[in-house]
Amino acid sequence: MFLSINKKFFLTITIFFLLVSTCFIIIFDGIIGKKIRSEHTNIITRNQYVIELLNENISLRKKLLTLQPTDTVELQSLATLDQKKDEISKERQLNEELNQNYNENYASLAESFRIISASAVLTILSLLILWFLLQRWVITPINKLTDLSIAIANGDFSQRLPIAHNQTTDEFDTLMTTINFMLDNIENNIKEIKRNETFLQNLIDALPDAVRLIDDKHNIILSNKAYNDYIRKHYLYRSNKCYAAYEKGATAPCNVSSYVCPLRELQQKSDSSITLIHDIKNRPLSVSSARININGRTGIVESFRDLRENIHYSHQQKISSLGFLATSLAHEMKNNLGAINIIINGILQKYHKNNADKTEEKKYLQMISEQILACTAIPERLLKLSRNTGDEVTAFNAIDSIKDILSLFDYEIKRKGIIATANFALPKETIRGNETDFKMIILNLVQNAINAMPNGGTLDIITENLKNKLIIKIRDTGCGMDKEEQAHIFEPFYSKSNAKKKQGTGLGLAIVRDLLTKYRAKIEVESKKNLGSCFTITFPSKKI
């Protein structure tokens, strides 16, 4: 039970006054009161004795009036009577003295009670004055301190203690001044901390990558705007635990078979940073984690980057490079080859104008002219491939697009001694979509197949029409892949050539999968080490 100091002090004064008054009354009654009561009893006893003597005197007087003093007995009675009179006189005198003493004692007792009453009044008045002074000098400052402490506990650091500017000060005034000064410093420090927190939050919010700070208990203690955007876009789940951001409702850290936990890895190893790629809802997220000290404990700071943006950028960059290459080739080849073709046509017109001329020279010149025209068609194909029409959807012939891509790799195929075969179910397979995206899908798969056969082999491109679905198979007899490689081939920046420290970005198949999402198509791979690979693309229907 809470009792304020004010109530405690009031109860203490009351109890102390009652105890002192009770003790005083008991002591006074035991010493003075007892004596007064004894004297009063004696007076009553003597008064009764005097009354008896008076009654006896009255009786004797009556006998004297009736008797004559004739004999000796009567004389003796008279002598006895005189003696009694003397005793009565003494008793009266003594009784008067006792009454006077009793009156004096009673007057002293009344005076004592008046003194006691006055003392009690003065004592109560002194205690009240002391209570008032304590209330003003002690209780009131303590109440102010209590109210201030409650406001501070509720987070309000703007409150201050009122201080009277008097000539005299005491310890409480000094304490209040010190507390006000301390609160000024605390409030300024809090404002500075909030300014720093705002600056820090604005700083990490300005970062394009998603960032979050994780302590050693897997708690997310800080995140930026980009990370919250990932949550709003449903890549991640909102949670205070880092692992629950990947799997909704998770109650334990990531299983090793599902995701590699960067916090666990950095706690167990001496590495200062680690970079992983997590596939979240078919979106490759690059997660870079670095060790950080949080209040003496090991935490990590993680940055996320959606690699599909890198894939899209790489795709656009590749198309742009093709466009630049095609433009350069078209300019150089068309001018030079066009000039050569004009010269050859001039020779034919001058020396072989006769249509019946079937000489060997005319035959070779016509073959040269045809090859020149075929060479000038190559940059035309590159220009057509490099035209980025964005998300424009048109109907196009998939077979013709595949043939255009094969013609681009004709020299590379022949140089490496690769036998390329094409087996198309129908001469025309019309589908709807972005033709440039479709060509880039075939280009990446054909290029990977050619790179997998550096010493020659067989490249088969097969199309099938099954239940209104277009199926395209690209099969090679190259080096193939094991199961571990197959599990990562669609991840951005993963490639065997990178593993062997050769050139290669590792984005080709990632671009393929990203582009296939526009067609709502799926891709599958079958591969065996040193036996080759087969990529199968299934488009859901002709009308997409």
Name the CATH class of the largest domain: Alpha Beta
Average pLDDT for all residues: 76
- How far apart, in Å, are the first and last alpha carbons? 78 Å
* Radius of gyration from the alpha-carbon trace, in angstroms: 60 Å
Helix content: 55-70%
H/E element order: HHHEEHHEEEHHEHHEEHEEHHHEE
CATH superfamily of the largest domain: Histidine kinase-like ATPase, C-terminal domain
Shape annotation: rod-shaped
What do these coordinates show?
There is one protein chain. The chain is an alpha+beta fold. The chain has 13 helices and twelve strands. The strands form three sheets. The protein has a five-stranded antiparallel beta sheet with strand order 2-1-5-4-3. It has a five-stranded mixed beta sheet with strand order 7-9-10-12-11. Strands 6-8 form a two-stranded antiparallel ribbon. Strand 1 and strand 2 form a beta hairpin. Helix 1 packs antiparallel against helix 2. The chain is rod-shaped. It starts with a helix and ends in a 5-residue tail after the last strand.
Could you outline the blueprint of secondary structure elements for this entry?
Layout: H1 5-66, H2 72-153, H3 171-205, E1 210-214, E2 220-223, H4 225-232, H5 262-268, E3 273-280, E4 283-294, E5 297-306, H6 307-351, H7 360-386, E6 394-397, H8 398-408, H9 410-415, E7 418-423, E8 430-433, H10 435-451, E9 457-466, E10 469-476, H11 483-486, H12 496-499, H13 508-519, E11 522-528, E12 532-539
Parallel strand pairs: 7-9
Antiparallel strand pairs: 1-2, 1-5, 3-4, 4-5, 6-8, 9-10, 10-12, 11-12
